[in-house]
Amino acid sequence: MSFSAADSGWGAWIADRYQRRADVLNRGFSGYNSDWFLKFADTNYGKADLFDHDNVKIVTVFFGANDASDVELNSRQHVPLERYKSNIKEIATLARNNFGVDVKIILIAPPPVCHDARLKFQKEKYKEKATGKLERTLELSGRYAKALTEVAEELNLPCLDVWTKMQNSTSLTQTWEEYLSDGLHLSAAGNKFLGEALLDLIDDLLPELAVTKGITGNIDSSSRSSMRSIAPWHDEIDQKSFSS
Length: 244
What we know:
With 244 residues, the protein is mostly helical.
């Protein structure tokens, strides 16, 4: 969903800012928890798919929404809290071992859960079979978000606490509940919120990898970054630009 066209995926927000500076690759897997991701990462195909990339600058790790499922109502996706913390550490270690000691790793906490929207979604999807019980709750997601921030502090890694930041949003146009399409997944507004928050974090904590938007709003030489651009900008081209 991070590159969803319909919901303005947050990954697309990052890719837009980093045009001609870096490629943004999505390696998120819908419905996965941290256990399943690590099992995939241990396969030959998974190793090649996830880690066979050169010159990686930033890795984001965004797990918890599925791990935080209620152990009784959704035992299939549930991951115990301490194992979740251990898994996040292992994923960070894998990123460091495969991409080098200089790669920047950003941990992203799971978003909050809106109970009313989640119940509405359940009734619309399951009709008369809807149980009225929530397999994901604000309290559970909050525990896993807190655990994620603790891991980030322990590993000295940047952390985007979406659970807290979203609920503390001072937006004049949206409530935090409107950042979620079904009480759990990000809406178009939520994707924009996350994308902008992540770009702000990079600006503040990783300025050497930040890209400042051009004053024209276009992708041209008015954008600024210490990261090298690919090929001359269109407004820099003259008859000498491509001379050998």
